[in-house]
Amino acid sequence: MTVYILCFALLLVGIYGVLTKRDLIKIILSLGIMGYAVNLMIILFAYKKGAGFAIMLRDGINTNMVDPLPQALILTSIVIELGITAMLVALAIRLFQKYKTFDITKIRRLSG
Amino acid sequence: MILPFLIIIPLLAAFLISLISGEKDNWAIVLSILAVISLLALAIFSFFTTGNKTFVYEMSGWKIPLTICLVQDALSSFMLVIVNLIALTSLMFSVTYIRQHDSPWKYYALFMLLITGMNGVIATGDIFNLYVFMEIALFAAYALVAFGGKAEEYEASFKYAVMGSISSTLILLGVGILYASTSTLTMANIAAELQTKNPMVMYWVAAIFMAGFGLKSAIMPFHAWLPDAHSSAPAPISSMLSGVLIKALGIYAIIRIFYNIFGAPQIFLTIFMVLGSISIIVASYLAMGQWDLKRLLAYSSISQIGFILLGLGIGTKLAILGAVFHILNHAIFKSLLFYNAGAVEMALGTRDLRKMGNLRGAMPVTSGTSMIASLSVAGLPPFNGFFSKLIIIIAAVQSNNIIYAIIAVIGSLLTLAYFMKVQRYGFNGENKITELNQSISLGMKSAMIILAVLCVVASILIIPGIREVTLDPVVSVIMNKTAYIQSVIGR
Amino acid sequence: MKQFDGMTLIVKTITRISVWLILLYGIYIILHGHLSPGGGFAGGVIIALAFLNVMLAYGGDFIKHWVNIGFLHDIESSSAALFLAVGILGMATGGGFLANFISHGRLYHLLSAGTIPLFNIIISAKVSMGLFIVVWTLAVFHLDKGGEDK
């Protein structure tokens, strides 16, 4: 039970970072922390105490195995977050070219 | 079956466009128009052959609990027709519009990826597959909002990307919790298993999903990205985003999850009604004070999504009929309004309402279609907006929610007010404008005329003979959770 | 030969030896994807890192002389189209989309498990080329004048 609470605490650290930091790169890093926290929680849902790896041992099918489905799920999720992070970094470089700053309180031309 | 082709065709078109295009975009235009026309033909064919039946397609030849399944019932076919129709008109509009920017073939490849993502979200029956296709569509949307190269577009796209990533992380958390409690990912299996588990799981996951999908569909507390993103994007992308993306990713996912998986307990419906009415009133007030044309249209989108959510929250058969019909209507007239804004911006070079004047002589097609679209949004007969709003208000009165009916009426009056502002300042102003920067091409005019004709024609869907064929199966799919489970697993 | 800017001579010498070992390791992870952890995506990232190692040690302009970026772009797009073609082929020979239609072979052998090693190779080609082109484009983007986007 405590591992799930720690994963949730990591998610809250990520949300705190997105809300209060003023630098563009720190916001991107905090989004990454949030992604890691959710991936970790999904992997931890798949663990059984004292079970072996999935599906086949040397001489037959393993009957006491951890759940292999969340492992495939978080592989997909990690790839998606890699793409989103690449796009955010490209946007940050372009924003620096146009606004000459990384400070998010100064990038405020659209309002109202 | 035809369901996998709705995902294969645009994906193949996107990769082929990226492979064979050099500096000129002729092959890109030909490939994308061929792909979208075939998609629209497949969608209309599937809509007319589905009726009350349900088709399930399992991928890779495995059986249901072990594989990803694609489900085609009345709701999916209805949304597929809307998405592909607006995509075709948007493509017709953007052939000339994108030539202003450099490297237009990238636009067509990203556009095909956007259509892939939306078709995948609508057609799938597996909840993690919904998350993956939603991310594909959002990725293309973030890139397309920033396509122009101006400073405001990058700022708007960054805001949209950060907020979208937070909500996607929350949705993944909800999917993980659902998997942990029911140990299956197919939506029909989750619906069957969730009845035997602790109801606290359902409330917890519903709160997470309401925040996550609420941000995707721009409901009022989660709306802050929408005015920037929809006003900074190029005009055909604004119409795709505001016309179909917030409905396919947001409202459709909310309908599937809250009606077909959770079974719509009363507390969620009350929350929908409250959030919907807040959206209607506050967004209408914010729209009245805007002088930027596309920003006004973006706030109007938030207000109309509030109408749809109010109809979904009331929960009776008539209210859901009104909400579903309003999804179709809002896609048609909001896209038409964004095309008008794009045409005016291309012709005059500005989006500010105070700088426009009398455009009736110089741009007759644009002025006429914008008058038709404004009357449709405000809800005047015989256009389609009148019927859908009337049905929602009557359903609110019939189920003893008089306060919500009064709020809906006030919202309609405010909508009429700010669209008359658009007509007064934007198209019937003081100084008569005679010369334009660039003239509107034939593709743009024909896209606008098609949608204006559909504004009038779509109101025949409410006549009782035609309604049984087209809209009633959709409503019966939404309201009947056990029939959905039976038709997906029972075969 | 012109001296390209980048890192020091020690880094360049070690990179010249070790980048081929990194490529070999990546190919091993891809080909044994159905027998041990790894597969298409992990192997693709390792191959992209091998190319990026060369870019970091020798500078961004050296890559234009070493490989042809247009060719890598074509590999990426065509491998994605090939993925869809193999999927449609699975649909044409019975079964559903992305079905496993090649014979499954004997257990634990390298050439077994049907279409899965084929998909591993296709995915690794797309991931490695895509990741390398994205990071190279971001690295040679000049801030004083406009560069290329995406």
Which term fits the overall shape of chain C?
elongated
Q: Let me know the average pLDDT of chain C.
A: 82
Main sheet of chain C, how many strands, which sense, barrel?
none
**Order of SSEs of chain C:** HHHHH
Q: Give me the strand/helix succession of chain B.
A: HHEEHHHHHHHHHHHHHHHHHH
Number of helices of chain B: 20
Span of the ends, CA to CA of chain B:
16 Å
Which ranges of chain C are low-confidence, i.e. pLDDT below 50, for 5 or more consecutive residues? Answer: 145-150
Q: How would a textbook summarize the main sheet of chain B? A: 2 strands, antiparallel
**Average pLDDT reading of chain B:** 86
Write a brief caption for the model.
The complex is a heterotrimer of chains A (112), B (491) and C (150). Chain A is mainly α and 112 residues long.
Explain what the structure shows.
The complex is a heterotrimer of chains A (about 110), B (about 500) and C (about 150). Chain A is built from 3 helices and 2 strands, in the order ααββα. By secondary structure, chain A is mainly alpha-helical. Chain A has a single domain, classed as Orthogonal Bundle (Helix Hairpins). Chain A has a two-stranded antiparallel ribbon with strand order 1-2. In chain A, a hairpin with a 2-residue loop joins strand 1 and strand 2. The longest helix of chain A is centred in the C-terminal third of the chain and has 31 residues. The longest helix of chain B has about 30 residues. Chain B has one domain. Chain B has a two-stranded antiparallel sheet with strand order 1-2. In chain B, helix 3 runs parallel beside helix 13. Helix content of chain B is about 75%, strand content about 0%. Chain C is mostly helical. Chain C is about 65% helix and about 0% strand. The C terminus of chain C is likely disordered. Classes of the chains: A mainly alpha (about 110), B mainly alpha (about 500), C mainly alpha (about 150). Chains A and B meet through helix 1, helix 2 and helix 3 of A and helix 5, helix 6 and helix 9 of B.
